[in-house]
Design a protein that fits this description.
Porin, 3 helices, mainly beta, 9 strands, 8-stranded antiparallel β-barrel, elongated
């Protein structure tokens, strides 16, 4: 987990340069695959939640590809994301106190923050999102609300890394609220050139 935190910090430090390559009408489709972490935080206020997030002893990670997503650009910086994830929960309230599966499938509406603040850089392409998901933990499941943020960092016009972090809150007491963070490879495609021919074929 220390390596994951170092990688995320390093990506943030690369927020320099120009030429944002955000997903847009010229590259309307994107797919992503990578890893996710789940943290069932115990704190009820923001201060407790941040302490729990930064003190990552209770993060649950499945050491394999455990999250996939597909996105379609809509318009004016908005895109629709469909995502599914799988995890194994070994820490719920204390280390190694659990052993059960977690999975979720849902949809998020993402907004490219560059539409508000102007172009940043190809290394820091931020977004926020709101959505819902069906979450199953052990033998309990329910629909939950996703509120999150993240950023993409692009290696070229079509390939980059994507980081997302969300607070996931339910409408009943079936599944405890929790954090989900993910890091994955993202690939954009579907763009067309001036002649109208798909340039990614």
């Amino acid at each position: 987990m220390k390596q994951l935190k170092i990688a995320v910090i390093a990506l943030l430090m690369l927020a320099l340069g120009s030429n944002v390559n955000a997903q847009d009408e010229n590259n309307p489709w994107a797919v992503s695959f990578g890893v996710n972490t789940i943290d069932f935080y115990a704190g009820s206020d923001f201060g407790d939640q941040m302490k729990d997030l930064l003190g990552n002893s209770d993060w649950n990670v499945l050491p394999s590809i455990s999250r996939i997503s597909a996105e379609k650009y809509l318009e004016k910086g908005f895109s629709l994301q469909l995502a599914g994830s799988l995890n194994k929960i070994s820490t719920f309230k204390s280390k190694d106190d659990s052993d059960f599966l977690y999975y979720s499938i849902g949809a998020n509406v993402k907004y490219d923050v560059n539409n508000l603040i102007g172009d940043t850089s190809q290394y820091f392409d931020p977004f926020v999102y709101l959505g819902g998901s069906y979450v199953s933990v052990d033998s309990e499941s329910e629909g939950m609300l996703n509120i999150g943020l993240g950023f993409n960092t692009w290696f070229n016009e079509n390939v980059g890394l994507s980081f997302q972090h969300a607070t996931i809150t339910g409408f009943s007491d079936q599944v405890a609220r929790h954090y989900q963070s993910s890091l994955g490879l993202v690939i954009k495609f579907g763009g067309t050139g001036a002649d109208g021919i798909n340039k990614n074929l």
